[in-house]
Amino acid sequence: MLDRTDKAILRILESNGRTSFNALSEKINLSKTPSWTRVQTLERDKVITGYRAVLSPEKLGLHLQAYVQARVASDKQRLFEEAVNRNGSILQCHATTGEADYILHVLVPDVAALDELLRIQIASMPGVKGVFTVVCLREIKTAGLITDCL
Fold this sequence. Notes:
The protein is an alpha+beta fold. It has helices at residues 4-15, 21-28, 32-44, 77-86, 111-122; strands at residues 64-72, 90-95, 102-108, 128-135.
């Protein structure tokens, strides 16, 4: 179970993973060594699973974001999941309940690339019986901060 100090550490590191141990220890009112020990424990316990840079899709030429719901034959789901994992345009894939078996979060440069991704790549993945796509017009909120849920 996480205590208040652990949650404070997670909030700070989640919003800025490059925070130094000096700055972290000042913000949580602990000395550097106990702060470092707590971070190591959170890493060892897989509460913190890594650190990464957050990139701007637009600055990288990836202007179109969409969600694709896919219906997949039950005997082909493992093969479908393997194909999804090999496709770089698919950022996330979740098995879902409801009318679709999966929801895919995709990022591509433009409508032509989305068309190619849907009609050629996703449609030819094992077991795909149908897709339904929603294109994102603009982003309203990207929390990205799990600690807001705590």
